[in-house]
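Troubleshooting: if your tokenizer reports a length mismatch, compare your output against this known-good record of 378 residues.
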Amino acid sequence: MKKIAIIINFNKEDWLGGYNYFKNFFKFLKKYQNHFEPVLILDKLSRLNNDNFFHNYKIITTPLVSNQNLYLKILNKILIFFIGKSFILENFYIKNKIDILTHSGYLGRNSKIKSFPWFPDFQEIYFPENFSLKQRILRRINIIMSYKNSTNILISSKSVMKDLKRISFFAYKKAQLIKHTADIPKRKKIFSKNFIKKKFGIYKNYFYLPNAYWKHKNHIVVLKALKILKIKPLIISTGKFYDHRAPRHSNYILDIIKKFNLQKSYRHLGIVSENEMYSLLYHSLALINPSKSEGWSNTVEQAKLLKKKVILSSIPVHLEQKSNNFIYFNSNNHKQLSSILVKHSKKIAAVSPFNNNNLNKIKENQKLFINRFIEIIK
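Known-good structure output:
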């Protein structure tokens, strides 16, 4: 049985989308493939943050994959650049019988271990102002090093594939398209409306916006849309309230909420549990994603599987994810969004996502995702 490893060396709250993607990857690989064993590599066990999900899988903890160990990180890059592999990393993976490293960087053109780095998006080419010059240079170097020192590059959407072609034709030629999917919990895992009322104090219909507060996620357009409405719908937001690239952005959002007097119509609940997130989505009027830049969105896929209405910015990747009940608006046009919110503020009878046809379709999508991955690594 071949071992396929993924590295988690980041805090769950800092990149919840990536964390949940990896959980789904492990779940689907174990469920639909008998010849491959997923292995989780951590720099420290606390990364799991009391998440029991990964305890059913093989876990290896090592400081070799830590982002904090700057000198070792530089040494590995130098070895890979000049020699084509890092003996330090190579020995570690061979010792632990790892055959493939996926979604977690490259190991070198001469490495015995296959590696498949993953690039969710390239927002630096659209919003360079969100990155320092140093960050933009390092991101470009990472793309060049990846195509020279990996087996293949993984890309999650056609629109991001086009972006990669603009950046590097050589990297583009080495890239493989693999659109991931999501999962939904069992019906009994969805909390009731009464639970939502008591837990979060939500007593009216609401739209759900579950994006982290990174600048490019464009929460501001939602606030501007609310401002011009006389009868304001309720927006419930979740996600980490901080942008490490723009530390002042969260304070700016708070100032706007106060300035527009939106404290009652726009509520941020912080980071919620996975079942709470699904429950908030399930009972909402619709999901909102106003982002100006995205990879293949997990929350959009989750809403799609739950048969929810979805209100999206009309960026290429969102258009690519299109399904029934999708409504689009220009990410810079708050007036257009406000009209959409008014039009869809009334609760309508929801279509149950827990019927056999939908559940079978979800399973088929998961199989297609994993089979596509196996096709790539073979």
